[in-house]
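ok trying this again, last paste got cut off
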Amino acid sequence: MIIRKDSGLTLIELLASVSILAIVLGFAVPTLGGFIQSQRLVAASNELLGGLMYARATAIKLRQRVTLCRSSDGVNCASDGGYEQGWLVFADAGVISVRDGADEVLRTSEGMSDLSISGNTPVRGYVSYLPSGVAQRASGAFQAGTITACIDNDGRKLILNRVGRVRISRDMTGC
């Protein structure tokens, strides 16, 4: 009696395996795309939250006004657009909310495409912290507002309260 050890797959077994794999991938790929998009939104929101927390902590530490503003080049504050183009944190020793020659850049962030990050009027262009940790506008008014990050119909709100603390809230309606 001859015992034959064949290893491998038959053509039918291979076709069945590939068919099952194609069906599974057909369901998984669209879900994976939405997951990746959602994680990009979370990452952008958390990065901006980290920048705001850093600006506040640094203002307290240095006992000096520190400002976070939107910036496309990482050197100067942008006059238009949203925070998705990038932002920078600087020690604001000169003209409030405007980076001039005396202001040291402390941290920068590059922009993220495929999403929008915009603030309402009080925080549209910048958030500026006093040495006490309170956010204050260039006019001297307290600064509180909402920055909304959106991809399609998914969003996150960064809510700045009147004492300068920021929290994140999930937002499905503001996008």
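PB: full thing came through this time. The first strand starts at residue 66 and ends at 70.
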